[in-house]
Design a protein that fits this description.
Order of helices and strands: HEE
Structural class: mainly alpha
Mean pLDDT: 80
Oligomer: single chain
Strand order of the largest sheet: 1-2
Shape: elongated
Largest sheet: 2 strands, antiparallel
Low-confidence stretches: none
Distance between the termini: 64 Å
Radius of gyration: 21 Å
Number of domains: 1
Helix content: 10-25%
Number of helices: 1
Strand content: under 5%
Length: 92
């Protein structure tokens, strides 16, 4: 009984020390394009894959009469940003 209570207390203590991870698309500030225009988040696609000849294609379109900047940021499995919109990588 004492061992069980000790384990429960230890688990609750460890869970109390946990902090949420701050990485990935929801915690990263939006970039600025190379023409100094600020970005606007339109969509987050979770689970994009490129592995063993299986790829995810992203197709964007603009139905407005004026041109818009379109950028795509790619994050790896650890939440690290893999490209730079400001440098022109992933922007059109």
């Amino acid at each position: 009984m004492i061992a069980t209570l000790t384990r429960i207390w230890l688990v609750l203590l460890l869970l109390g020390l946990c902090r949420p991870a701050a990485a990935g698309p929801t915690d990263t500030p939006l970039p600025t394009f190379s023409d100094s225009r600020a970005a606007v988040n339109v969509y987050i696609a979770a689970g994009v894959i490129k592995n063993n000849n299986l790829e995810t294609d992203v197709v964007c379109t603009n139905v407005d009469t004026v041109a818009v900047d379109i950028g795509l940021e790619v994050f790896d499995e650890t939440g690290a940003l893999r490209n730079s919109i400001a440098a022109g990588s992933g922007a059109s």
